[in-house]
Structures are given as structure tokens and as C-alpha cells.
Design a protein that fits this description.
The complex is a heterotrimer of chains A (about 1050), B (about 300) and C (about 150). By secondary structure, chain A is an alpha+beta fold. In chain A, about 55% of the residues lie in helices and about 10% in strands. Chain A has 35 helices and 25 strands. Chain A is elongated. In chain B, a hairpin with a 2-residue loop joins strand 2 and strand 3 (about 270-275). Chain B has about 300 residues and is mainly alpha-helical. In chain B, helix 3 (about 40-55) packs parallel to helix 9 and helix 5 crosses helix 9 (about 175-195). The longest helix of chain B has 24 residues, at about 205-225. Chain B is built from twelve helices and four strands; from the N terminus they run αααααααααααββββα. In chain C, strand 6 and strand 7 (about 115) form a beta hairpin. By secondary structure, chain C is of the alpha+beta class. Chain C is globular. The chains are: A alpha+beta (about 1050), B mainly alpha (about 300), C alpha+beta (about 150). Strand 3 (about 270-275) of chain B pairs parallel with strand 8 of chain C, so a sheet runs across the interface.
């Protein structure tokens, strides 16, 4: 309580106390005790003094006459009423409703301490109650509770009486406690969900471990325990359950029928487990390690399908109708499923949004707050969850929050895996209390638990014990379990289940019996067990029959109206977005990485060729082409690293959310959305900085587009590996394998002409292995774009292309064809009859046919009509001569046209440099936009041979940037490296855009691989192929052998 | 779920199609006129052959440079065209002229054994030749390697000269003889420039001056060659400049004494004994005048 | 049986080789010839090359002549080499003229001998010309090299 409030309360107490005859000793003692409960010694004295001060001026009036006193008291109470009103209003503004109720109760208590219920005093309290907006009925209940001694007056629905009486007032609630002396009264204030407690007798009674003073009113809070020594305690939940009417839970009959499970590698997980449970019960699943507890949980919660046997919920098979039934099942795994960067409130908030479709923001807020309240987490709702190493909230609080995430859905059946592991005993009890309360409200809860304390063990309605190998060795009441095993073990004192003097049931006893080992002659335990699991199992089947549950059970509700795809997407997106934003380190690193890298790279490679000059000239920077290459590699790296861990991090959360039947594609798309945004930003920074420093003018958008597309591809690739592997390290080890091949096969570091022929090097098209490297597509797109579309070259490109085509034909192509013919003629002149190879003829034929159909033919109209004669049988000297003159005519055409085009270009340039000013401008244009090294790269200037023979074709190797794609088959889209255009389905497309589209096609394909879990399925198959295959082989062999035996009778 | 994926697939396909449509339009090649214009004339063909015959008379820079070297002329880098100027040569005209200029510079450097400096000049030659689409004639790899070892200067010169010869012949074959003429002209002017600028003392000075005077003969041939292209304003300009140089050379007189040459066989080879003589009449003033005009011409070429 | 098969196989391969891989001496016309000729230069300095290629002349017509103008300088001794492509029938004849006056030639009509080069110490600077033709108008390929004696 704050200072202000305490002061106000002191005033209030004083005003009440000094009414009529003034403050009595009891009353003062009451105030003192009240202060003592909440403050230290020094402050108690302070406030007491204050109280006395407020009372103070009254003492003087004790000497007044009775009559005067009466008059004065009336007068005084009027003045005081005003004061009271003022104080009450002040309190109203600052205290919560709960706190106000508590204040009211304390006021009543004050009055009750001396039993002076004068009208004035009651009037004051009335005023307070009114101002505090406490409703009439509750106020009456409080009054009755505090003041009334008469048993019969406690006939109010809000009161619970705990005693050994059989007869109680009609409307009051009752818990029978035969060992109790006197009565415990509990008052429930419904509007603020508070319980007040008082005890009529003076016998020893403990509340939360501390003795209760009779006639004092205590707050009975969640988790509270009332105990008599040596007696069964009364829990808060027991009390609360009396007042609760939770009708939102459906009545469920859960039946596990001979469930049997075998692992993919052949081991048995569960051996014919059966049990029957219904709502309102809490069941423990216990066993040593390797007994199959978690497996059982997984099977009965619907996550794994049993090899044999069924699980029924209200008659419906869980694994058949999983969609229908998953809505009423909640699963809380042992691990944390919290998003560590978000607050407690936010974690619940997003979970809620995912579950409910049509709630308004306000409704969601209410729901979340309600759950927080029920979990006792309201006070920490704005704390970040943090990771287990950087604790912001305690382990117990984390656990409760985990439970809360499931509670949002209000499932009827809960499966909890080791809720108390790693928690302190206090936290453990808290958590179990919470679960108990849920049970009381009507849920059915299965809990896997290990080494519970005696208190917790006794909380369970039933316990199932499993032994090694998945054998069920007990099912029934926990306390009786001890008896059962002791009996079986023929121990003395077997009929005593509990330790009579201490009330403890030791579950460890059970396990020590089950797992006890044979001792050898020296008294040392051996490896062998006294009783094997199978034997326990046999006993179980023999001695224990499971109670069958009958009765009519509710029809199951329709599955949740979950939000539609778009809303799910928005929720996932918002959740991920805010989680990332709140992680400052992550954000900073990822956003700064790109511009820093860009700066580093560009700065280092920005060099000036002329050692005597200080002026940077773009044209002479040989590093521009390598820079473009590095852009692609950086894009891949950034994209992969940002996404590699994404799904892996989320996998537990995904497991849990699999119960919600949410759309996987909306989850994936939200992830992709976030990553794309990040990639886009990184691309922007990198390109902006890098290109600027290196003086790559214009085309920022094109560079950005390619960088982003490549990073986007890497994002989806990263998501794929993130969802396929089971550890973070594996994922990171994989990254070099994904990046290095792309580096090598981009076409920048190693020319495709100079790589191993076995994988496709040196041919007329990009090697197939490089066709699946997105980095290559990106690089090619950027380089061709940079060359063709820069401000300088775009004025000349079409003419230069024509010039190059004519040049190639004139200088290399036609002379080469001529050579074949001349060689033939020469050999002929030397006297060989058959002087030409069939292969050579084929080549000539192919090329002449192609030449006939070339786009130039319409301009020169020379055709070689006798292509059919270019076969060994028909080829002769005269054909050769005709061929030669045809080729000479072609050569002339190309030579002349080349000169014309060359001159035309030259004239254009001359025009642009005609004055010295224009010359300067032209030189500037050249310096700023044209790059010498890039030019020689795209023209393949270093190629050893301009023209090579490939089977029976001639392939142009020089000037690839001016060469159109040669393979024009309809479905073919492959061409040589650095082609300016690509061909597909009969049309030509700019390489830049075509390559970009291909990149996105890759990305989309990977998305589908992601959606259908292609990679994880492949890995699973690869990992398990050996045991699965060997088993199948063995089975087949056995079948064959049996068949043979049958047939042959051997 | 499947419906969702099908629809997203459709959406994506739609985007792709949009992409294609947006980028499909091919740039029309309106270069048809370049491919159809009829610009051949018979006259040019004749000129090509004639040019081919005459162009071999433009002296090789080797002869002049050897003479300078023998005359103990000191090497001077300043006389050469700076390597960096190449970025100013954008038109075929400029490229061809300066290809010749740099060619002479390269020979000069090689004869004086300045092989280190030749690298950037070789690169320039390659660059200019590529620009003129005649880059296939220089085996730059070999030249480079050879330059590194001084004993192979002869091989270097051989390869360089042969390269220029082949280039010239190719250009003429390809009906681009104007380029060949420009290259030859550039070569010649640069040699003449170097010769007129070097500092010498008698008696070497006399020899050099005589050789300079003898260039009068070359000049006439040069004019003849250039006159073929006078319809081109750029050619016209250098033609006129050369005419101005001719005026200077008109001050030089060469006298001839004719004798009958005799052909003799000695040791399996033919040796000619010829007592015909020529005398060049030239003085320093004339040299000065020539030098100034040559410098003027050259500066215009290399700017 | 097996022997025959092997034999046939070998023959098939041999035929293929014979017809597809020319093993006859390749024509040396062009740069190759220049290189070969250059090797004969000895101590002289290469100035210029003059490749010549003529086809066979029709019977009755006069042989084809290729002319090149050169300028020779006083005080220099020149050598003019002539090299033939031996795969062709024609043998080259190189003649040096001053204007219309013949100064020297590599072919002695009387003896029918071809000389490898002409050596010419020059005292008169001026225009000269080289003329190339092939004996008998036959088809030929040759190169002439102008060089200076150190």
C-alpha cells in the first residue's frame, strides 16, 4: 500500500474510531496489528502516531458532559462525513476494486474489534461502501461474515462453512471435515474473486504454514492451504471449486484401448496399454527412463499413430478423426515454447489471436488478462520472457505461461509432460495447484511426472505406472499403489499405505520395489532384476481390472473457427516482426551488415589505374566485373544466414501449434514475408553504398532487384534446410556446400570454356550444372545489363551488334568454311579420290543450310541451292567450285557491309566529338559509364579460339554479348553464357528480365519443396533406409523360406 | 489447403506472364538501310590495288631509328606520344593515325632497348587495333614475352613489322585502305618528328639531315595516297597540312647522277654494283621550318 | 577367323585416317612461309615482307606480275630475299627496278638459275620497285623480304 493510501486509511480509521465515545484500546490494538502486518517497526510507529494525531483532539472532549457529547457527536459526525466522503473518493481513484473490498472488510473488522456497532460508525462504513461501488448484497455478506457470530445467520450463498457438522444453513456451502473443531468460514466476493477466511475455534490451525488467530479475518489466496497438524489439508482449489461453476468444459470420456507402438527402427515403445478416464480427473503417468512415458503421451495426444490399438474420445477414434478431435486436446511439452523476445502478455496475445477468429481487440485483451490472472502472472505481464540463461521471469512462471498458452484454447483434455522438472518445490506445488484447479473445473489432465513429492503424488486421482519396454504395471489410486506393490513384494506393514505419523506417501518406494535388483553373495546388487517388466505386467493383468466408465457423453463441438488464411498470415507476421524488432542486437547486426560489407568491398576495390592521377575513373577500374560477382555471393550469404535458423528455432512452437490446425502455408509465407523485407533492406543498403562508391551510375534499381531476388532465393533455401535438419550446427555446416559450388560455377571466376569437359565445359551452351546455379543467372543478368544498357553503350549497342555479326562472318566464319572446301580441292589435286570426310561434309551441309536461313540472306539473296549435293556420294569438284564462288560472294557481302556499318558508327562518334566541348562530354560519358575490363569480359576477348567445331557444327566463341541464341527449338531456353537475349517458346526476351524470372521460378519451386517438406522427407528416408530396408528384406526372406518349406515339405 | 496452393500458383504464374509481356518487345533493328544501301563504286576498288602497291614505299620506322642509334643519338622518352593520351582517340581516324604513331614509338623503344616501357605501349596498340577491328594481327603474348629478354630485340622487331605489314594488307583486302594509309602516315610523321627533334653534332648531324631531306620523296607518295580520300573532310585537313609541309620541303633540292648498274654473281648471290649517286641540299633553316610544320601536324594528330 | 577380323579392322581405321587426317605436307603459303624465309635472313635486319600468290595463268597469256613500290636510302646495303612455297609448282622471280630500268633479278635466263637473294649497296636514294612473277606463269606462292645489312 502506498503512503497516501495508508494516510487516508489512518484518517478513516481515526474518524470511525473516535465516533461516540472515542477510540477504545481494542480498536487501537487492531490498527496497530493492521499496520504491523504490512510495515516495519519504524513505519508502524510513524503511522500509529498519525492515527493518534487524527484521534488526538477527541481526547480533550472526554471531560464533556453526556449531553454535550451527544450533541457534539452528532455535529462531529456531519463534519466528519464530509471528510469521509473526501477520503473515500480519493481512495476510490487510487485503489483497485479488490483493494477497496479489502479496505471495507478491514473497516468492518475495526468496528468488530470492540463490537461497537453504533449507527454513526455503521453509517460511515455504509458511505464508504457506496462510494467504493460495492454492491449491496456483497456488502451485506461482508457485514454478516465479519460481525455475525450466530451460526444460523450464515445462510448466504457466498459463504462456505467447513466443519464437522452435518447440518448447515441452506444456502451456504459446506465442506465436511470431521477432525475439525469449530468452524472455518470462507467468504467469497464474486465480483473481485476474493476469499476471506476466519476460524471460530482456538485450536491450532495452520494457514499456509502459519497459525490462524481466531476472530481474525484472513485473505485466502490462490495456492493457499489450510491444515490441521496430522490431517489432510484443505486446498484453495477445494474451496474455490465449491464456488465455481465452469460450464465451458465438455464432459469427455477418454479411452485407450490396447495401444501398441513400435519405433521405425524396430524397438517396442508401448506394450498394449489400456485405460479409461473421464473429465474432472488428473492422471499421472510414471515410470523409469526408457519405460515409454513420453511415447505414451505422444500417442494418446494424437501426435503419433499407434502400431496397433486405438484411442477413443467419446467414442471417436482420435487418429481417424484427428481434425475434429485436435481442437479439444491441449499438449504442453516439457520444453519451453515461448517466444523469448516478446513479453508474457504478447506471447499469450498472439496465441489467442491464432486460435480465435472473430474477436475484437478488446475481447482478446480480456481473455488474455483473464488467463494471466488465473495463472497468477498478471504482475509480470509486461516483462520479456527472456531465454533460460537470461532469466527475466522465473522457471515456475515460465512453466505457468506455457500452460497458459494451451489454456487459451480451453481444451477439454490436457497432456502435460513433466511440468515440475527443474522447478523448486514451491514452484512445483504452484504449478500442480494450477493443474488441480483446472481439473476441478472439469478438465481431464494426463501428466507425465518423475519423482513427485509426496504432496503432489497424492493430488492425483489415478496413476498409471510403466516399466521398461512399455509395459503397464499398475493403474489405480496412488496411495493404493504403494500397498499393491508392497503386498506383491511381501513386505511387512503392507497394509499401511501411508506413514502413519507423518502423512507422507513415498512414491520412491514403488519404484525401488519395481526396479529392485538381485543381490549377489556379497550383498551387492547385480544387473538382474528381481522381477522383470513382463512379470509385473502379468501380475497387473491378473490382479487389476480396469474400471469401465459408462454413461452418456456430450457430442463433441465443431472444431475451432480459426482465423482465415490472411488473418493467420497477419498474426504470424506481426508476432515474428515484433519479436525480431525487440531483439536489438539481432536487428542492428542484420541491418548494419549489408552497408558495412558494401562499403568494405567497394572501398577496397576502388582503385585508380594511373599512378600519377588522383581522379577515379570508372572506365578503367578492372574490378567492376569481380564486384558484380561478389554482389551475387554476398546476396547468397546474407540470405542464407538470416534464414538458416528460422524454422529450426520455431520447431517446438510449430509442434504445439500443430494442434491448432493452422495453415502451414500462412506460417511459411509470414516467415518469408519477414525475411524478404529484411533482404530487401539489406539489398538496398549494400547496393546503395557499393555502387555509389564504385561509381556505377544509374541502374541502382536493377542491381537492387537482382540482389534482392538472389537473397530471396537464399532465404527460401535457408528455410528449407532449417526445417529439414535437427540441429543448428548441421545447418551451418551445410552452408558452405550451398555457396561454394555457386561461386565456382557463376562463370566469373572460372570461364565455362575452361572447365572440365566432363561436366559440360567448353561447349556451345552454359553447362547444365551451371544452369541450376542461381548465382550464375543473377551474375549473367547483371553483367549483360551493365554492358548493354549503360548510358554510353545503349546508343551504340544495336549497331555494334550488327557490326560484330558481320565481322564474325567475314573474318572467321566464311573463311573457315572456305578452308574446308579448299582443303578438299587441295587433296583432290594431290590425287586422292575421296578427299573429304563424311563428317566434314555434314558440317558444311549444316552450316550452309543455316546460312541460307540467316537473317542476312534477304539482303544479299545469295543462296546455295544444292545443299542436297553435299553428301559423299554426290560431292565433287564442280560442286566444290560452286561452293567456293558462293562463299566468295558471301564474303564480299559481309566485308562490304561490315565496312559500311563500321563507318556509320565511326561517323556517329565523330559527330559526338566534333567540338572540343562535345569531345569532353563524350569522354566524360565514356569514363562514367563504360568499363574496359567488363567490355573485354563480355566480348570474351581472352578466348583462345574465336570459332570452334562441335561435332558437325561451328560454334562462335567470340563476342558472346552480340550473339543471339542459336538453339531455337521451341521448348529450349538454354543458350550460351552472356547472351544478350534469351529464347523461349518462339520469342526473345531481354536476358536481364528473363534471368530474373528464372530466379523467381527457382524460389517458387523451393517454396513448394518447403511446403511439402521435401528435404526433411528425403533425409528421413536416407537415415532410416537401412533399418527399414533390412527389416523388409528379412521379412521377405522369411516369407520365401516359409513358402519353399510349404512347397517342398522340407 | 490444396485450393490455396493452386490459387497461389496461379497468381504467381500470372505475375510471370506479366513479366514476359512487359519485357518481350524486341528492339526493332532499323538497320535495314545499312544492309541495303548500295555504296560500292568501282573506283574505290581500283584505288585499293594501287594503294597496296604504293603503300609499301612509306618507310619503316626501323630504318630511321637505326640511323639515329648509329649516330649516337641519346634516347629521349619525351619525344614519344604519352601512353595515356589513348583515351582521347575515339574515331577510326584518330585511332588509325595514332596506331601508327605508337607503332613508331614501340620500334624506337625496342631499338634503344627500353623494354620495360613498352608494356603500356603494347597495350595501347592492342587497344587501338581492337577498336579498328584488326586486333588479330599482333601476337601480344609473344611480343610481351620477347620484350622481356633483350637478346630477342630482333625477333620483337620482326614480329612487330610483320604484324604491321599483315595489317596493312588485310585492310587493303577488306577495302579499308584508308585506314592503312592513315596508319602509314602516322608512322611516318612520328619518325620524322623524332628525327627533327633530336640533338646531334656533326658529322652525324649531316647524315640525319640528309635522311630528313630524302623524305621529300616519301612526301610526294604520301600526298598521292592521301589524295584518294579528299572527299572526307578529315583527310582533306591533313592533306592540306601536308601540302604546307611540302612547301618547306620544296626548299630541299636533291641532285641525281645516273650510272649504269651492274649485276654480278658472287658466292651464289646476286650483287649489284651501282655508281649512281644522289645529293641532298639542306641546311639548318630548312630543317627548322620542316621541324616546325612536322610538330604542328603531329600535335594535331595526337591531341 | 579372328585374324581376318583384326585385319579388316585395322584396314578400316587406316582408311579413315588416310582420308580424314591429311598427312601430306601442308601448304606453307602465308605467315608460315614468311617465318621460314625470315630464318634465312641471317645477320640482316628485317624491314618488310612482300607475300605473293598467283594462280595458274591460261595458256597463251603472259604471266601475272605483282608490283610493289619501295624507297631505298643512300648509304644502306639492302638484301632482297625470295622464298618459295615448295608445294606449289611455280618458282618466283624477283626483279628490282628503278623506274623502268632493271637493276637486278633473282633469275638468270641463260643458266636458268634462281638466286636466293639480291644484295644492293645503295648510293642513290629514291623510288624503286619490286616485281614478282612465277616462272612459266605457273601457280605459285612466295614471299619477298627486304632487309638491311648491319
Amino acid at each position: 500500500m502506498s503512503e497516501e493510501i495508508l494516510k487516508a486509511l489512518m484518517q478513516l480509521f481515526a474518524i470511525i474510531a473516535k465516533q461516540d465515545v472515542g477510540v477504545s484500546t481494542n480498536e487501537r490494538v487492531y490498527v496497530e496489528n493492521f499496520l504491523r502486518q504490512q510495515l516495519n517497526e519504524k513505519s508502524v510507529k510513524e503511522y500509529l502516531t498519525l492515527f493518534d494525531k487524527y484521534i488526538g483532539d477527541k481526547k480533550a472532549s472526554e471531560i464533556d458532559t453526556d449531553k454535550e457529547k451527544e450533541k457534539k457527536s452528532k455535529l462531529i459526525s456531519v463534519k466528519d462525513s464530509v471528510k469521509i466522503l473526501g477520503i473515500a473518493k480519493k481512495i476510490n481513484k487510487t485503489l483497485t476494486q479488490k483493494q477497496k473490498v479489502v479496505v471495507l472488510v478491514r473497516l468492518c473488522e475495526l468496528v468488530n474489534s470492540d463490537k461497537k456497532f453504533t449507527p454513526q460508525r455503521m453509517a460511515i462504513i455504509d458511505t464508504a461502501a457506496e462510494v467504493f461501488n460495492i454492491n449491496k448484497e456483497e456488502y451485506n455478506a461482508i457485514e454478516t461474515f465479519v460481525i455475525e457470530d450466530d451460526f444460523s445467520k450464515w445462510d448466504i450463498a457466498d459463504i462456505l462453512i467447513i466443519n464437522s457438522e452435518k447440518k448447515i444453513p441452506k444456502r451456504a456451502k459446506h465442506i465436511y471435515w470431521d477432525q475439525l473443531e469449530g468452524s472455518i468460514l470462507v467468504l467469497h466476493i464474486h465480483s473481485v474473486d476474493l476469499y476471506f477466511l476466519s476460524y471460530t475455534s482456538t485450536r491450532e490451525l495452520l494457514l499456509n504454514g502459519l497459525p490462524i488467530n481466531n476472530r481474525k479475518i484472513y485473505l485466502f489466496a490462490r495456492g493457499g492451504v489450510i491444515k490441521q497438524p496430522k490431517d489432510k489439508p484443505v486446498f484453495y482449489t477445494d474451496v474455490a471449486s465449491q464456488f465455481m461453476s465452469d460450464d465451458t468444459t465438455i464432459n469427455v470420456h477418454f479411452k485407450i484401448d490396447k495401444v501398441h507402438y513400435r519405433f521405425p527402427n524396430g524397438h517396442i515403445g508401448l506394450m498394449e496399454i489400456s485405460l479409461d478416464e473421464q473429465s474432472g480427473k488428473m492422471l499421472a503417468i510414471m515410470g523409469g527412463s526408457g519405460s515409454g512415458k513420453t511415447t505414451l503421451l505422444n500417442v494418446v495426444s494424437g501426435m503419433i499413430k499407434p502400431t496397433r490399438g486405438n484411442v477413443y474420445i467419446n467414442g471417436n477414434d482420435l487418429h481417424e478423426k484427428s481434425d475434429l478431435l485436435k481442437g479439444i486436446i491441449g499438449y504442453i511439452p516439457q520444453d519451453d515454447l515461448l517466444i523469448e523476445e516478446l513479453t508474457v502478455y504478447e506471447n499469450l496475445y498472439y496465441s489467442t489471436k491464432l486460435v480465435y477468429k472473430n474477436l475484437s481487440e478488446e475481447e482478446i485483451e480480456n481473455k488474455v488478462n483473464k488467463v494471466l490472472f488465473n495463472l497468477g502472472l498478471s504482475h509480470i505481464k509486461n516483462l520479456k520472457v527472456g531465454d533460460p540463461l537470461n532469466k527475466e521471469i522465473s522457471g515456475g512462471q515460465r512453466k505457468r505461461l506455457n500452460i497458459g498458452l494451451e489454456l487459451i484454447r480451453e481444451p477439454a483434455v490436457l497432456f502435460v509432460d513433466e511440468p515440475t522438472s527443474g522447478l523448486s518445490s514451491r514452484d512445483s506445488e504452484n504449478v500442480m495447484e494450477l493443474l488441480r484447479e483446472l481439473t476441478v473445473r472439469g478438465k481431464l489432465i494426463f501428466i507425465v511426472i518423475h519423482q513427485p513429492s509426496s504432496e503432489i503424488f497424492k493430488m492425483f486421482d489415478n496413476v498409471t505406472i510403466l516399466d521398461e519396454g512399455g509395459f503397464q504395471v499398475y493403474h489405480g489410486n496412488p496411495v493404493e499403489a504403494v500397498i499393491y506393490f508392497k503386498k506383491l513384494d511381501n513386505q511387512i506393514n503392507s497394509h499401511i499405505g501411508e506413514c502413519p505419523s507423518c502423512g507422507n506417501v513415498n512414491p520412491e518406494t514403488i519404484f525401488s520395489i519395481i526396479e529392485s535388483r538381485i543381490v549377489d553373495e556379497y550383498g551387492q546388487p547385480t544387473v538382474n532384476r528381481k522381477v522383470t517388466p513382463i512379470e509385473w505386467y502379468a501380475h497387473f493383468k491378473d490382479k487389476i481390472s480396469l474400471k469401465k466408465i459408462t454413461g452418456v457423453f456430450d457430442k463433441l463441438p465443431e472444431s475451432f473457427k480459426k482465423p482465415n488464411w490472411l488473418n493467420q498470415y497477419k498474426i504470424f507476421f506481426a508476432r515474428d516482426f515484433f519479436s525480431k524488432i525487440s531483439n536489438r542486437q539481432y536487428l542492428l547486426l542484420n541491418l548494419l551488415e549489408a552497408p558495412l560489407l558494401g562499403f568494405l568491398l567497394a572501398f577496397v576495390i576502388r582503385y585508380i589505374e594511373d599512378p600519377t592521377s588522383d581522379v577515379y575513373i570508372f572506365r578503367n577500374n578492372d574490378n567492376i566485373m569481380p564486384y558484380i560477382f561478389m554482389c551475387t555471393i554476398v546476396a547468397l550469404f546474407l540470405g542464407l544466414i538470416v534464414s538458416a535458423e528460422e524454422i529450426f528455432k520455431d520447431r517446438k512452437i510449430l509442434k504445439r501449434e500443430s494442434f491448432l490446425n493452422l495453415s502451414r502455408s500462412s506460417y511459411l509465407c509470414s516467415k518469408i514475408g519477414i525475411l524478404f523485407i529484411l533482404s530487401a533492406i539489406q539489398a538496398f543498403f549494400f547496393i546503395f553504398v557499393g555502387n555509389y562508391i564504385l561509381g556505377i551510375k544509374g541502374m541502382y534499381f536493377e542491381y537492387w532487384l537482382v540482389f534482392f531476388s538472389l537473397a530471396a532465393f537464399a532465404n527460401v533455401l535457408g528455410l528449407n534446410i532449417s526445417s529439414a535438419f535437427n540441429s543448428a550446427i548441421t545447418i551451418y555446416i551445410l552452408i558452405p556446400f550451398l555457396i561454394i559450388p555457386q561461386m565456382v560455377l557463376t562463370g566469373a571466376m572460372f570461364s565455362f570454356d575452361k572447365i572440365n569437359r566432363a561436366i559440360g565445359g567448353g561447349q556451345d551452351k552454359v553447362p547444365i550444372i551451371a544452369e541450376i546455379m542461381p548465382s550464375r543467372w543473377a551474375f549473367e543478368g547483371l553483367v549483360t545489363n551493365q554492358y548493354i544498357n549503360n548510358k554510353y553503350n545503349r546508343n551504340f549497342y544495336t549497331q555494334r551488334k550488327l557490326e560484330s555479326e558481320l565481322y564474325y562472318k567475314n573474318v572467321y566464319y566464311i573463311p573457315e568454311l572456305k578452308r574446308y572446301v579448299e582443303d578438299y580441292k587441295f587433296r583432290l589435286s594431290q590425287g586422292h579420290e575421296e578427299s573429304i570426310c563424311e563428317e566434314d561434309l555434314k558440317l558444311l551441309r549444316n552450316e550452309i543450310v543455316k546460312e541460307n536461313e540467316s537473317k542476312f540472306t534477304q539482303y544479299h539473296n545469295h543462296r546455295f541451292e544444292k545443299t542436297d549435293k553435299l553428301v559423299p556420294e554426290k560431292f565433287n569438284r564442280s560442286i566444290a567450285d560452286e561452293l567456293t564462288s558462293y562463299l566468295i560472294r558471301l564474303n564480299d557481302f559481309y566485308r562490304i557491309r561490315f565496312n559500311i556499318v563500321n563507318n556509320a558508327i565511326d561517323e556517329e562518334i565523330a559527330r559526338r566529338v566534333s567540338t572540343s566541348k562535345k569531345h569532353e562530354e563524350y569522354t566524360q560519358l565514356l569514363n562514367d559509364h563504360h568499363n574496359e575490363y567488363l567490355t573485354s569480359f563480355v566480348k570474351n576477348a581472352m578466348v583462345p579460339l574465336p570459332l570452334v567445331r562441335l561435332d558437325n557444327h561451328l560454334v562462335q566463341k567470340t563476342d558472346p554479348i552480340y550473339l543471339e541464341p542459336q538453339d531455337l527449338r521451341l521448348l529450349n531456353f538454354r543458350s550460351h553464357f552472356l547472351a544478350p537475349k534469351k529464347h523461349f517458346l518462339g520469342s526473345f526476351y531481354d536476358t536481364f528480365y528473363f534471368n530474373l524470372v528464372i530466379l523467381w521460378v527457382f524460389t517458387i519451386l523451393l517454396y513448394f519443396a518447403l511446403y511439402y517438406n521435401f528435404f526433411s522427407k528425403t533425409i528421413f528416408f536416407a537415415e532410416n533406409i537401412i533399418p527399414i530396408a533390412s527389416r523388409k528384406i528379412r521379412a521377405t526372406r522369411i516369407k520365401i523360406r516359409d513358402f519353399l518349406i510349404e512347397q517342398t515339405g522340407i | 489447403m490444396v485450393k490455396r496452393n493452386v490459387s497461389s500458383l496461379l497468381l504467381l504464374t500470372g505475375l510471370l506472364v506479366l513479366f514476359f509481356v512487359a519485357c518481350a518487345p524486341e528492339r526493332p533493328d532499323d538497320l535495314t538501310e545499312l544492309l541495303t544501301d548500295d555504296l560500292i563504286s568501282e573506283e574505290m576498288k581500283m584505288t585499293d590495288e594501287a594503294v597496296g602497291q604504293m603503300i609499301s614505299s612509306v618507310p619503316n620506322p626501323v630504318e630511321m631509328t637505326i640511323l639515329l642509334q648509329k649516330s649516337n643519338v641519346v634516347y629521349s622518352q619525351d619525344l614519344l606520344n604519352p601512353s595515356g593520351s589513348i583515351s582521347n582517340y575515339n574515331t577510326n581516324f584518330k585511332k588509325a593515325l595514332n596506331l601508327g604513331v605508337y607503332g613508331t614509338d614501340l620500334v624506337y623503344m625496342n631499338i634503344y632497348d627500353r623494354t620495360v616501357s613498352t608494356l603500356s605501349y603494347l597495350r595501347n596498340l592492342q587497344n587501338l587495333a581492337d577498336g579498328l577491328r584488326i586486333g588479330q594481327f599482333f601476337d601480344y603474348e609473344t611480343l610481351n614475352r620477347l620484350s622481356e629478354s633483350s637478346r630477342n630485340i630482333d625477333s620483337v622487331l620482326y614480329i612487330t613489322n610483320r604484324g604491321f605489314d599483315n595489317m596493312t594488307r588485310y585492310l587493303i583486302d577488306q577495302s579499308r585502305s584508308s585506314i592503312a594509309v592513315l596508319i602509314a602516315y602516322g608512322t611516318w610523321i612520328e619518325s620524322l618528328y623524332i628525327a627533327t627533334k633530336v640533338k646531334t653534332h656533326p658529322p652525324n648531324k649531316e647524315l640525319i639531315n640528309q635522311r630528313i631531306g630524302e623524305q621529300k620523296i616519301v612526301l610526294d607518295n604520301m600526298l598521292h595516297l592521301l589524295s584518294n580520300y579528299r572527299n572526307d573532310p578529315f583527310f582533306e585537313e591533313i592533306f592540306l597540312d601536308l601540302m604546307d609541309l611540302k612547301k618547306e620541303f620544296d626548299n630541299v633540292t636533291i641532285s641525281y647522277i645516273y650510272e649504269e648498274p651492274v649485276m654480278k654473281e658472287i658466292d651464289g648471290k646476286i650483287v649489284v654494283i651501282d655508281n649512281s649517286r644522289s645529293e641532298v641540299n639542306i641546311n639548318d633553316d630548312i630543317i627548322d621550318g620542316i621541324s616546325k610544320q612536322v610538330e604542328y601536324i603531329l600535335n594535331k594528330i595526337i591531341e | 577367323m579372328i585374324m581376318t577380323k583384326q585385319l579388316i579392322f585395322i584396314m578400316a581405321v587406316a582408311t579413315l585416317i588416310v582420308f580424314c587426317i591429311p598427312f601430306e605436307a601442308k601448304s606453307q603459303c602465308g605467315d608460315e612461309l614468311t617465318n621460314i624465309c625470315h630464318a634465312k635472313l641471317g645477320n640482316t635486319r628485317f624491314i618488310r615482307s612482300f607475300p605473293v600468290q598467283h594462280g595458274e595463268v591460261d595458256r597463251g597469256s603472259s604471266p601475272r606480275v605483282t608490283r610493289y613500290e619501295i624507297i631505298l636510302n643512300r648509304g644502306t646495303t639492302y638484301r632482297i630475299f625470295a622464298c618459295n612455297d615448295k608445294t606449289k609448282p611455280g618458282r618466283v622471280i624477283v626483279s628490282l627496278y628503278r623506274g623502268d630500268q632493271l637493276i637486278a633479278t633473282t633469275y638468270d635466263v641463260e643458266t636458268g638459275r634462281h638466286f636466293p637473294y639480291i644484295e644492293y649497296p645503295v648510293n642513290m636514294s629514291g623510288r624503286y620497285s619490286l616485281q614478282f612473277m612465277f616462272k612459266g606463269g605457273k601457280e605459285g606462292c612466295a614471299v619477298g623480304i627486304l632487309s638491311t645489312v648491319n
